Amino acid sequence: MTDTQVREKTPVDFWFDPLCPWAWMTSRWMLEVEKVRDVEVRWHVMSLAVLNEDKLDELPERYRELLGPKGWAPVRVVVAAQQKFGEEVTGKLYTALGTKIHNEDRGATREVIADALAEVGLPAELLAYADSDEYDQVLRDSHNDGIERVGQEVGTPVISVPGADGEEVAFFGPVVTPAPRGEAAARLWDGTLLVASTPGFYEIKRTRTKGPSFE
């Protein structure tokens, strides 16, 4: 390849809800993969509140509280920012929100959302969309796009890539903690693509014995 040639990067579509600590771990791994493989992440929103809205009565009280108005607020603000300022702000705002919600253990408060907006240079007025349903249909459309690619029995994150044969490969996860770095991130990526693209492959799973480690 000459200096004038640019290798085309493989697009990786990633669906997240800012509230989900496991999606946050996977997203940090995915940023590591960008450094060691020719991939480019495209960020999309999904919503745990939408995912669980028909079964809230079956969930423990703490989850019902989390997926109520508090659960809608961060993702609504991300969607509003995306609609008003373009797709390129999505990943930056997600990083600012996730760092404060998860790494700093501040939770998804209005103050945290306001601080995240300020950190990435977005107007404070966007905070008003935390309580607005103006872009809820956009949110639902993005959510459904991700879920329809991988199936109804999963949560966040969802990842979708073009397969070697041209067909889409979409999967939930991987769920991992802490997020692998460097070549460890690359090996996990290669292995995930290998199993996800194997005809007839559906699932590998084991019980989680550790919580997310935000190292």
From TrEMBL:
Q: In terms of domain of life, where is this protein from?
A: Bacteria
Q: What is this protein called?
A: DsbA family protein
